[in-house]
Amino acid sequence: MHKRRWLPVPVGPVIPHNSIFVDACCRFLRWAAAATFASGPMEDIDVLGRLQSRRRKIRAFSLIVLGVGVILVAGCGRDARKDAPEVGPDDAANTVDSSPEIQRLGGEVHWTKGNERCAVYLNDIAADDLPVVVAATLSLPGVEEVRMTGAQVGDTAALPIVGIPTLRRLRLTDTSITDATIAKVSQQGNLQLLHLHGAPDVTSEGMSAIESLTAMKDLSLSGKNFDDRVLPALTAMSQLKKLRLRGSGVTGDSFESIATLPVVDLELAETDFGNQGMPWIAKMPKLTKLNLWLCKVDDAGVIALDGMTQLTSLNLDNLPGVTDASIDTIVGLSELTFLHLGKTSVSPEGVARLTKLQELETLHVTNLDVPDDVLETLREEMPNLKSLVN
């Protein structure tokens, strides 16, 4: 008696559940090969009839069956690999959440967009804790915004933060950063918001580097070291909507360089900005909100705004040089919904003429000694007036 001869039958990898036809073919080929070699003595096999050299041809047939099976099963394996999800190189790192460490040391982490993006607030973190907090921030995925405050924040802490590839918004307040950090910031071509409040070691010359931030939409600079020399660096910011230069050193001498920017909201409060810059403000095509609180503007500057009917908000608070001579220009700004005339030199008679501003919703006339009858007239004749502050 001859012993049965068993040959190993290749078993392919797992086949995708949706490959029904291929699955059936592979199963059939494996079964056929197994049956051929496990059917008994080789002499008893009658697969090809009474042809000569049965043993040689049966073996050849079996090898063909096995070969085709191997090819098909391998192909199924390739299909399975094709359907398998790809794993990115950063997936493992992104599973680590370092936000508890940041919160333990006094910071805040705010997640948005399904925990895919976050904002990190590092306000007044102790100097000894800064290295740990900075490292933890760098390990977080999707950091879009960082806020840092305090004199203990210098270039050492700020430089790694401003290099975060996903960073879109950066707020630095009362820090000791220098031009080195600004140079690094200038490499963040996708930065959309930059607030620098109280950075006395940054120079106007160093700020020239931000001209590369062409995606900027919101820029706020506070400090006398940010003067007129900064303005030419803004000329390429074609998407700039908000420009706030509160407490800066700007005077208006170089405002021509940014007169064509699409700025919607402009704040020049607490500066030495004077009448010389007002004609350029009047040329800003998209401007709707203007804050001139505590500037050096008087009637001549306000009159330069004549015809800016797109203005909806005008703050002239604490401008003693503004008198009744400006009223004709002001009432011509027919779309105004907010007006502040507090601590100007406008008389009660001038205030009474404001009834022409039919769209006005909020009016401040503080420190003008406006009598009650004038206030009552304003309320009666201005249908949209919701807030009258006297």
Automatic annotation (TrEMBL):
Listed GO CC annotations: SCF ubiquitin ligase complex
InterPro entries tied to this protein: Leu-rich_rpt, LRR_dom_sf
Source organism superkingdom: Bacteria
Record-linked Pfam families: LRR_6
Transmembrane domains' residue ranges: 58-75
GO biological process terms held by the UniProt record: SCF-dependent proteasomal ubiquitin-dependent protein catabolic process
Record keywords, A-Z: Membrane, Transmembrane, Transmembrane helix
Organism ancestry: Bacteria, Pseudomonadati, Planctomycetota, Planctomycetia, Planctomycetales
Organism in which the protein naturally occurs: Crateriforma conspicua
Record-given protein name: Leucine Rich repeats (2 copies)
Keyword Transmembrane helix: yes
